[in-house]
Design a protein that fits this description.
By secondary structure, the protein is of the alpha+beta class. The chain folds into two domains: 50 residues, no CATH class; 35 residues. It is built from two helices and two strands. It has a two-stranded antiparallel sheet with strand order 1-2. The longest helix has 28 residues. The protein is elongated. The termini are far apart. The relative contact order is 0.12.
């Protein structure tokens, strides 16, 4: 079936081969977009990962890392503003 080929390609592209326990693709819906004259097909890909493998989080997309970076940047900006304000007071 065509969805099996799509699933195999997604598994390779998303690099789940080493940690994948199972995966499946399901066609959610299909329609035609009159504005762009294109067929639109929504697919859902689910991948079950083995539990014995540690979670691989990308620091560029991990919400905890991004939140921490935002807090640190905010603190840095505040510290710069305070230092700048203190320099103005000395004048």
């Amino acid at each position: 079936m065509m969805l099996n080929k799509i699933l195999a390609l997604l598994d390779v592209q998303l690099v789940f081969q080493a940690t994948k326990a199972s995966s499946k693709v399901k066609k959610l819906w299909q329609s035609y977009d009159n504005q762009t004259n294109e067929n639109v097909i929504w697919l859902e890909c689910r991948v079950r990962v083995r539990n014995n493998q540690p979670s691989q989080s990308d620091p560029r997309t991990d919400p905890k890392v991004l939140r921490q970076a935002a807090v640190e940047k905010e603190r840095s900006v505040m510290n710069d503003l305070i230092a700048w304000s203190n320099r103005l007071k000395c004048w």
